[in-house]
Every structure is written in structure tokens, then in C-alpha cells.
Amino acid sequence: MFSSSGLDSRRTVRDFSRVKSAALLFCLVLVSAGATAAQDVITPTSHIELLNGRDFTGWTFCLNSNAVPAKTWTGTNGVIHCTGQPYGYARTDQAFRNYQLTVVWRFVRVAPRADNSGIFVHIQPPDKVFPECVECQGQFRHQGDFILSGGASADGHPANGNRAIFIPQTGPPNEQPVGEWNTNQITCRGDTVELVVNGRQMNRITGCNLSSGFIGIQSEGGEIEVRKMSLAPLNSP
């Protein structure tokens, strides 16, 4: 079972009873600490489980309105639950480059204006809603889209200030019905990002201005669960 020992935006919290007091510090953005962590980038050489099945150690939370993370992010029996409100994200404390990321997740339910989520790769400091990153879209029926956020760019998709750039999926959706598990595989190799949803390649970008950063799960309206999130080293090209 997950405990709440990681539920704070900047430090580890031992249990849910301490989350509310710790959340007083939630609005502080420690840019220097984020920059230091981003400089220490890991290239995986073996399998890495990003969710330890016990608690939220190794994760940082950023939410609108200085919200208490425990009201958005909980976990039971090794499964993370996200309410989707308020908007924000959970991200790894560690930055990574050159990896294959596997995420097994599902929508608990969807409704109008409550059908969105996403997986972030190459998150850049400082933490804000939403940061510079590449988003693998999680919106219902659009899980093959990319969104270049916060100034991110790629070949054929130049940066447009901080405005988001939408890159639609190549082909019809390949996601499971609501309530069933999806498997997303995201391969980040240098300046290339490739997205495979349930075994079908849905999108690929090259020439991305980002090649490393934190990895995150988005809270954006949709109620979701995540039961696996792991990294594998890349095979030789």
C-alpha cells in the first residue's frame, strides 16, 4: 500500500497527518534546487521502477492554488489515484535522458471537461503549471497527440513563445475503453521522442530542443489511476 511519505511539493512528508502543515511551504518554488537536480541527469543502464509501491518517495508535486497534494494524489495497493483537480502534476525528483518509459494507466471515469491527463517528459525547472516539457497527451481519444509546452520545440514545430504547440496523432485512436488499462511506451533518444499506445506507434518528433529532464504525471480534469511506471535502457540504434 502507498503511504503519503512523498506528498509535499518540495520535501518528503512522513505521513498524511503532516501533509497539511508541510503544504504551507508548497507555494515556494526552489529554482536553485530544481536546477541542481536537473544537472544531475541519469541515463538508465538497467530497469528502474519509478513507483516503489509503498509511498511517494522520490516525487515532487506542483498544483494550482497551493493545493494540498494529498487531496489530489493518493495510493492504495501499489496504484496511484489522481482526482484531476486542481490542475498540476507530480514529477520525479531525478532527471533522466535516453530511456524507454512504460506507463500502465487508465481513466476511472470521463465526463465533459473531465477527460484529460498526460505524461510529461523532459520537464524543465522551474516548477509551474504548466512547465516547459513534451507532453504525451492523455485526453480521451487523443492519447497519441504530442503537446510541446512552455517553449518546447521540434522539427517543423518552432517555439511560439510560451504557447502550447499541438501535434496530432498519426492515425485513429488506439486506446482502451474507460476503465480498462492502457500501456504507453515513450522512447526518448537524444532529440527524438516516440510514442506507442497499446502497441501501435502514434507519434514521433525529431529535433526537439529538449533531450533530458524530469518525468511527470499530469492532473488536468480526468480521474485516472497509474499502476506501473518504469524506465528501461535503450537498445543500440
Tell me briefly what this model is.
With 237 residues, the chain is mainly β.
Question: Can you characterise this structure?
Answer:
This protein is mainly beta and about 240 residues long. Helix content is about 5%, strand content about 40%. It is built from 2 helices and 17 strands. Strand 13 and strand 14 form a beta hairpin. The longest helix has 9 residues, at about 30-40. The chain is globular, with a radius of gyration of 16 Å. Mean pLDDT is about 85; it is low at about 10-40.
Write the SSE topology.
Layout: H1 19-22, H2 31-39, E1 41-42, E2 48-49, E3 59-63, E4 73-76, E5 79-82, E6 88-92, E7 95-96, E8 99-109, E9 117-123, E10 133-137, E11 146-149, E12 165-167, E13 182-189, E14 192-197, E15 200-205, E16 214-219, E17 223-232
Parallel strand pairs: 1-7
Antiparallel strand pairs: 2-17, 3-6, 4-5, 5-17, 6-16, 8-13, 8-17, 9-10, 9-16, 10-11, 11-12, 13-14, 14-15
The CATH homologous superfamily is named Exo-inulinase, domain 1
Order of helices and strands: HHEEEEEEEEEEEEEEEEE
Number of E-state strands: 17
Largest sheet: 8 strands, antiparallel
Number of helices: 2
Query: Which fold name corresponds to the CATH topology?
Result: Jelly Rolls
Span between termini: 38 Å
Mean pLDDT: 87
Number of domains: 1
CATH architecture: Sandwich
**SS-based class:** mainly beta
- Uncertain residue ranges: 9-38
Features:
globular, 8-stranded antiparallel beta sheet, single chain, 2 helices, Jelly Rolls, mainly beta
